[in-house]
Design a protein that fits this description.
The chain is globular and about 45 Å long. It has a single domain, classed as Alpha-Beta Barrel (TIM Barrel). Helix 8 crosses helix 9. It is 44% helix and 15% strand. The chain is an alpha/beta fold. It binds cytidine-5'-monophosphate.
């Protein structure tokens, strides 16, 4: 059964395998999944996947955010399918064929998530990139459009901000997985606007994301930068638990 800690995905956003090992040891009992991104995978490749597997039962999310021509994505996904990881990511991009080939390359061995709009992107960024006003004035429309493409291509779900989860679930059903980064716990001494500090723009608290229907929360800095990362993960799991029906 999925427990509160299983909702937490901790990104191993560190430069060395030694630091990654420390976090895996520290958190393997208090989070459900570790996310390996480009920083570690470019340097260590499958070795980092093995390290996590050997350390316990936490699952693995290989977040490579692929974006290339369909055939190249297909071939990359065939390599990923051999790594025995739970999730991987492909940008929804502009072309459904790339997503279809990603799913085909994964061959059912890995769940493919479409990245809709990065949570670091603002309405102004979308406007500046030349998108029509209907998308820059209401980014959830762009998220929805890209999610529809991911769904049609056979993706298992998407990555989106906690603000968009509700509308995603309404449109695509509860089995379409929603993974939400941009999570900032609201602590007693932090005001609502202060949680938007660093590069994440479309943020929610863990409780809000769960209430909106998120299946997994990517939570990095609020755990990593805490004085006691293990205790921070446990506190967040409690907040999640209080929202689970
Ligand atoms: O919680 P924090 O902001 O530190 O989380 C950062 C992590 O969230 C990074 O690993 C980044 O890749 C991930 N992320 C993501 N999808 C986004 C935005 C951020 O997976 N749309």
């Amino acid at each position: 059964m999925k427990t509160a800690k299983d909702y937490i995905i901790f990104p191993l956003d560190v430069p060395t395998i030694g630091e990654a090992r420390n976090y895996v040891k520290l958190l393997s009992e208090s989070v459900g999944m570790f996310k390996v991104g480009l920083e570690l995978f470019i340097r260590y490749g499958p070795e980092i996947i093995k390290l996590i597997k050997d350390s316990g039962t936490a699952k693995i999310f290989l977040d490579l955010k692929l974006h290339d021509i369909p055939e190249t994505v297909y071939r990359a996904m065939k390599s990923i399918a051999g790594l025995d990881v739970s999730f991987t990511t492909v940008h929804c991009g502009e072309n459904i064929d790339m997503l279809k080939k990603a799913v085909a390359g994964g061959a059912g061995s890995v769940a493919v998530l479409g990245v809709t709009v990065l949570t670091s992107v603002s309405n102004e960024d979308i406007f500046a990139a030349g998108f029509r006003k209907e998308f820059s004035s209401d980014m959830s429309r762009l998220v929805l459009k890209r999610a529809a493409t991911a769904k049609a291509a056979g993706c298992a779900g998407i990555v989106c901000s906690g603000l968009e989860v509700k509308i995603i679930k309404e449109h695509f059903g509860k089995n379409f997985t929603a993974v939400t980064p941009g999570i900032r716990p609201l602590r007693d001494n932090i005001k609502r606007d202060d949680i938007k500090k660093n590069d994440q723009k479309r943020v929610t608290t863990p409780a809000e994301a769960i209430r909106n229907g998120a299946d997994y929360l990517v939570i990095g800095r609020p755990i990593r930068d805490a004085k006691d990362p293990g205790a921070a993960a446990v506190r967040i799991a409690k907040e999640i638990k209080s929202e689970l029906k």
